[in-house]
Design a protein that fits this description.
The chain contains 5 helices and no strands. It has 88 residues and is mainly α. It has a domain of 43 residues. Helix 2 crosses helix 5 and helix 3 packs across helix 4. It is elongated, with a radius of gyration of 16 Å.
Length: 88
Amino acid sequence: MSPLMIPQITQFYVQTHKKTGRSELLTARETEVLKLIAEGKASKEIAALLGLSIRTVDNHRSSIMRKLHVTKSADLVRHAISMGYIPA
């Protein structure tokens, strides 16, 4: 890549990130798990709905929390509402 393109690519990334928020960091599966968490589903229920093990769901939850820089499930719900995943 040409060094001359770096400022343009950086600017594009920053502008895109501002528009879409942090959720772009999440995989499709993590987004699906986040929606179910925000709906109040327990890990066991999510696992059954998605055909995953409870441990896999818990790993997704941990990954989501790390990526979104949150420490509480309530913060996950707030994020899901702010991104329009569930109605307020």
